[in-house]
Amino acid sequence: MKFQKKILCIGAGYVGGPSMAMIAHKCPDYRVTVADINHERIDAWNSAELPVYEPGLDDIVKKTRGKNLFFAKDIENQIKENDIIFVCVNTPTKTFGTGAGKAADLQYLEKTARQILQYSQSPKIVIEKSTLPVKTALAMERILSSGKGKITFEVLSNPEFMAEGTAIKDLENPDRVLIGSRETKSGLKARAELVDIYSNWIPQEKIITSNIWSSELSKLVANAFLAQRVSSINSISALCEKADANVAEVARAVGMDSRVGGKFLNAGIGFGGSCFKKDILNLVYLCSYYGLPEVADYWESVVKINEYQQERFIANILGSMFNTLAGKKICILGFAFKADTGDTRESPAIYITRRLLAEHAEVIISDPKALKNAALDLADEEGKIDYIEDAYRAAAGCHALAIMTDWDLYKKLDYKKIFKSMVKPAFLFDGRNILDHKKCFEIGFNVYPIGKPALSHFKTSQES
Ligand SMILES: NC(=O)c1ccc[n+]([C@@H]2O[C@H](COP(=O)([O-])OP(=O)(O)OC[C@H]3O[C@@H](n4cnc5c(N)ncnc54)[C@H](O)[C@@H]3O)[C@@H](O)[C@H]2O)c1
Hints:
It is built from 18 helices and 14 strands.
């Protein structure tokens, strides 16, 4: 079959796999290939058990794989054979040298650019889909134009706004698709080609275009704004606990103002995931680099509040459980950084678990999709943790439950049955505010939500 367009994606991760599967699904006339240096990952994409869990993803991959969606290891050949190349490699926080702990580590991106230059035999459109510091396209262009040949490359920015857990829904019906390009004749032509791809299923008014720097920066700013909302409501949750207010009631009242909006205002244990912290720190680094320390401090405080919230959670567990956790069994319900994903990168559960172990608690971790990743994250603590997928078995014999992930499953458990199987007094720390706290209290739990008064069966010092 002759395909209308030949698309390659370099990087078969959480973004590359699902986003390319969606293009293949919506554009049967295009051939889409996803390549990666991680051969195990490619094998997994070609197997029955995909390396990424996302509701709806299996279905789309099953329909397209081997027809117009391919997962490949031979990156060099794929570069030669394809005309449009998405770059979807990881851009973690730098751990060494200048900017360590804040700046983005662009080594994978640069290696990819050099590979594209080395193996290209015809003109290419190269699309940055990874999240990058503003002005990265300039470096990309300089590398791609450093060859002696006459091949032309046009660099576009097309940041991905999908969220893990709802990736397929987001990719199918995004709020917007952003495409940034140089505003030259060839830049605008390449931009039109990418608009053409998305137009197969996305309404024109949702495909927005901009200059390339605005596009790069918009992704960092979008994540910073989202994380800022989480930290804003979490900071207020601390005040609510002191002032006997209820953060859910405050969030509802504030969110009903249409200028504010009600989404992303649930207080909890804090944000995780591979992006928010990394992208804010990257923004902080850029602001410092451009001589804007006040702006850098402002955004850094979003990360600091997130850390403070986790610290508060631990202090609350310790304080409520009579200031000692040694030898007590604590069941962590949920290890993924959010519901509907197996991804545990930067999950608050990692930090909380380590802190519980430092207090010599015995930790049992339960999660429907993330146990494999949890065991990898905590490999250095091997032997100190039990991993049990079934929540009832995990909770049996424990002194406390700590809910770390907003899995729907945890809202529907039989807490009466769980309470019966636990050591008394039984404690429940709802790090995601997802349960009916009054009901759990009536069952017999001492309940500690976030930003709401605790419901405890213990008499206060005045009563005793
Ligand atoms: N995960 C998300 O929800 C999300 C959402 C939007 C944007 N992003 C951004 O997208 C980018 C990718 O994120 P991810 O979560 O998919 O990362 P990931 O780590 O899951 O995947 C990246 C893949 O790139 C591969 N890779 C690295 N260097 C390579 C090279 N030279 N050649 C071929 N393959 C190479 C890695 O082996 C890995 O499989 C990041 O910049 C991230 O910030 C992520």
